[in-house]
Amino acid sequence: MVSFTPLLGFHFLLAVILAYFIRGNFIAALIGTVVGNPITFPFIWGLIYKVGTFVTNIKLDKKTHEINLDMIVNQTYEIFFPMLVGGIIIAPLVWVTTYYVIYSFIASYKKRKNKKNKRLF
Q1: What is the pTM (predicted TM-score) of this model?
Q2: Residues spanned by the domain of 65
Q3: What is the mean pLDDT of residues 64-79?
Q4: CA geometry: angle at 93 spanning 13 and 55, to 5°?
Q5: Going along the chain, which residue ranges are E strands?
Q6: CB-based burial of residue 4 (10 Å sphere; 0-12 exposed, 13-18 middle, 19+ buried)?
Q7: Is 121 exposed, middle or buried (0-12, 13-18, 19+ CB in 10 A)?
Q8: Which of 8, 3, 2 is nearest to 80 (CA)?
């Protein structure tokens, strides 16, 4: 879930904090942050930016493919805020979806394992 926020550099910390508050597994939370990696970040950030700009109606005047210090300092509102809003909207949806998908896989695995163990005895 935290990979769907623009808070790069804080993903591991946020994952541990959220796992603590929901009494989740810290290791699983840290492994889940691997979803955010250099291959997936452009897609994740593009999605949360699009959702954020749709909701906030804040558009970047001049789009560029370069990121530099001047852009970060002077265009934080036009870039970071829509990404944060988009992340706040998308992250819970991703969280719930992946929870139920993983839960169903684990439940199915345990059911097959229990069925197999009953046949052995």
Answers
A1: 0.75
A2: 2-120
A3: 72
A4: 95
A5: none
A6: buried
A7: exposed
A8: 8
DSSP 85: H
Q: For residue 103, what are its two tokens?
A: 């839960």
Rounded-to-integer distance, Cα 58 and Cα 46, Å: 14
Which amino acid is it at 52?
A: G
Backbone angle region of 57, left / alpha / beta, with phi > 0 → left and psi within -120 to 50 → alpha:
left
Task: Name every residue whose Cβ is closer than 8 Å to that of residue 52 and which is 6 or more positions away in sequence.
Answer: 58, 81, 82, 83, 84, 85, 86, 87, 89
- One-letter amino acid for residue 71 of the chain: M
Q: How far apart are CA 90 and CA 85, in angstroms?
A: 9
- What dihedral angle (degrees, nearest 10) is formed by the CA atoms of 50, 52, 54, 56? -150
**Higher-scoring residue by pLDDT: 22, 115:** 22
Q: How many domains does the chain have?
A: 1
